[in-house]
Amino acid sequence: MSRFLSNAINRIDAKGRVSVPAAFRAVLAQRDIQELYCIQDFVFPAISIGGPELLERYERQISVEDPFAREGNEMSLLVHGGGVFMKLDAEGRLMVTDFVRGFTGITTEVCFVGRSDHFQLWQPQAFHEAQAAAREGRRLRGLQTS
Question: Do the domain assignments include residue 70?
Fold first, then answer.
């Protein structure tokens, strides 16, 4: 199965590019994803990246909402106003733009995080802290009695 799994940290080069991990590039190739839809995550300080189907999934959710009501309007603001298209260069690198840096706090390194059907870009320390908090939350919920 072609899923984005695991995490890896890569350094940003002098021109502001970062190499996408080979395993993630393989999934992109297997899924024939040429253009990447990138959106600011709704919860975490991360950029979510997937193919056009990621945008289409969000747009299906928006389409069932009243476009003039708050819910649909807010969703469009996040999905369309907080998203951009990007492409990998010929060497499999992604440009770490101000769009990415400003939202995530990324400076010199990028943590790539698999999220099954898409992947995310994180500032490495922020990812490790969020993952530790999630693990602790799961542990504590597991200790609770019904």
Answer: yes
